[in-house]
Amino acid sequence: MTELSHNKVPALVDHLFRHQAGQMIATLVRVFGPRHIDLAEEVVQDALLKALQLWAYKGIPDNPSAWLIQVAKNRALDLLRREASLAEKSEELLRAFAAQETLANQQSESLSNNATLDDTLAMVFMACHPSLSRESRVALTLKTVGGFGTSEIARAFLTKEPTVAQRLVRAKRLIRDEGISFDLPSSREMSARLDSVLEVLYLMFNEGYAAHSGENLVRADLCDEAIRLGWLIVQHPATRLPKSHALLSLMLFQAARLSARIGEGGELHLLAEQNRSLWDRRLIALGFHYLERSAAGEEFSEYHLQAAIASCHAAAASYELTNWEQIVRLYDLLVALNPSPVIALNRAVAIAKHHGAEAGLREVEKIIAHPALQQYYLLPATLGELWQELGEADKAADNFHQALRCPCSEPERRFLQRKLATVTYQSQYPTLSEETL
After folding, report:
1. Which DSSP string corresponds to 361-429?
2. Cβ atoms 258, 283 nearer than 8 A
3. Burial environment of residue 233 by CB neighbours within 10 A (0 to 12, 13 to 18, 19 or more)
4. pLDDT grade, residue 357 (50/70/90)?
5. From its phi and psi, is residue 38 left (phi > 0), alpha (psi between -120 and 50) or beta?
6. Residue 11: pLDDT above 80?
7. Tens digits of per-residue pLDDT, 177-208?
8. Which of 65, 129, 195, 263 has a CA between 20 and 30 Å from the CA of residue 391?
């Protein structure tokens, strides 16, 4: 046993639970069946609570992971003995947890055990079943695979806790009522079902990378979990597809810039303002590795193009040396593949960087009336930037005012207020240079 202060035990338990909970729940759901997700979660939750209660007083076990698995197994066996309908599952449960204990005893954090990896991926595919709503898929994945609590999910997405709890209840009920199985999809179904899984990871990562509202722009725990699950996806032969590698590459490139996006005072730093020495070069190298892996085969997805765009930024030694010509070409392909107004807006920004602000404004005018962009703060914020670049301080101020009326996070709001103050000053004192400000 290892002594540890009371205040450090919760952090250690949380770390272990993040890495063990999903595997244990997945194994239990396979043994008990999808109808008993709540039972599986109860068993694992019991292991967590016992660790919190006992470790601060009795010390940390020599192998904390194996300790958690043992407690979960004992609790599961108790429940099996009580429930006659599950009594025949005892032997299967013992075999399943024996494999996890072996891995824990080897002090290995990898999922080299095929059964454990299969269980975890099967759980991901069940949680991301297309029959569930997007919000339910994300919540259920975070809860069952990521070990996130209901309150954590609610905080991450700025949603009320009862709302998240209701989504989870509805998702589990639908799984039960529709008889959704706990299996990896067949080869014939894999690509389509994988699209749903990748979409959930993409949504999860984006919410962590740029929260839609609240005090924090970045929620690194969501980014980390999306990357962890993306890594699991590319480890399995059935899901080791080019689009899986492309999404993982994209997330790695974006995550590499997280530490430079927010200043010490919580202020937002745009790409042009970021200190590139803070970028994580290890993550960038991994991003290029998986981007190269994504080129295998003939499959070509939106994630490929987004990862390629992110790679252009990662490869540039400075903002001024960014290859905007290549980025515009990639956006041309991306808009053809997915004519989203948000992608079109990003393309307009790239065109402005390559061909000038007037060219960018012409592109924005083509999408300015799109219904999906009417409460999207980046539309007027982009117009404000372009008008400011053209020396039209009043028009820039009008657009920054409009952007502030749209939903956004507090760091983004403070950024817009600074931009508005700058252009307002320029409007009042037009002869002063920007350097003077």
Report:
1. HHHHHHHTT-GGGTT-THHHHHHHHHHHHTT-HHHHHHHHHHHHTS--BHHHHHHHHHHHHHHHHHHHS
2. no
3. buried
4. very high
5. alpha
6. no
7. 999 988 888 878 887 889 999 999 998 898 88
8. 263
**155, two tokens:** 């905080």
Q: In this predicted structure, what is the pLDDT of residue 218?
A: 62
- Assigned token pair, 214: 């609240």
214 pairs with which residues across the strands? Answer: 409
257 close to 223: Cβ distance less than 8 angstroms: no
The arithmetic mean of pLDDT across residues 321-335, rounded, is 97
Judge whether 228 and 264 are in contact, CB under 8 Å: no
* Intra-chain end-to-end CA distance of the chain, in Å: 61
Contact 69, 44 (CB under 8 A): no
Angstrom distances, CA of residue 409 to CA of 63, 76, 84, 272: 42, 43, 51, 20
Written as six digits, the tokens of 354 are: 């390559």
Helix or strand run (H / E) with residue 39? helix 37-58
3-state secondary structure of 145: coil
Please name which of 225, 123, 256, 250 lies closest in space to residue 182, comparing C-alpha atoms: 123
DSSP letter for each residue of 148-210: --HHHHHHHTT--HHHHHHHHHHHHHHHHHTT--SSPPPHHHHHHHHHHHHHHHHHHHHHHHS
Under 8 Å between Cβ of 89 and 29? no
3-state secondary structure of 359: helix
CB 307 within 8 Å of CB 313:
no
DSSP assignment of 305-344: HHHHHHHHHHH-SSGGG--HHHHHHHHHHHHHH---HHHH
* Backbone phi, psi, residue 262, to 5°: -125, 130
The pLDDT tens digits for 384-421 are 999 999 999 999 999 999 999 998 888 889 999 999 99
| Helix (H/G/I), strand (E/B), else coil: 214 | strand
